[in-house]
Design a protein that fits this description.
- By secondary structure, this protein is mainly alpha-helical.
- The chain has two helices and four strands.
- It has a domain of about 60 residues.
- Helix content is about 55%, strand content about 5%.
- The strands form two sheets. A two-stranded antiparallel ribbon has the order 1-2. A two-stranded antiparallel sheet has the order 3-4.
- Strand 3 and strand 4 form a beta hairpin.
Length: about 120
């Protein structure tokens, strides 16, 4: 067999547009459709993109669960940031009261307590 016959034997036909692609192409050179699917769990490469031939992982279910976990994490982070903002706001609002209490305590400790203990 000549080199061109071997190359023609290993061509992949795109299921979307029918274009002939090299055996090693991951995407169609014409329409960019996926030709080789990689399992997100075990990284096995295959032509079919539904279930992994090696570990049996369902691709759609795997990515759905990953998306759900990412959305839950984003939701949790949003609430954490919201509560941190609320706490900062409350600290700023109550700062004059705590600052005044600290000033009164300092005056009492500095001036009044020494006079009461000297008697």
């Amino acid at each position: 067999m000549s080199g061109t016959a071997i190359e023609e034997a290993v061509k992949i036909t795109c299921p979307k547009c029918g274009n002939e692609n090299p055996q090693t192409a991951y995407f169609c050179t014409t329409c960019h459709a996926i030709l080789i699917h990689r399992c997100p769990n075990c990284w096995h490469e295959q032509r079919d993109g539904m279930n992994c031939e090696k570990c049996g992982t369902n691709f759609a279910l795997y990515w759905q669960l990953q998306l759900q976990a990412a959305m839950e994490e984003e939701y949790r982070l949003w609430w954490d940031k919201l509560w941190a903002g609320i706490v900062k706001f409350l600290q700023i609002v109550t700062l004059p009261f705590y600052g005044l209490a600290g000033a009164i305590r300092a005056v009492v400790l500095r001036f009044i307590v020494p006079r009461l203990t000297n008697r």
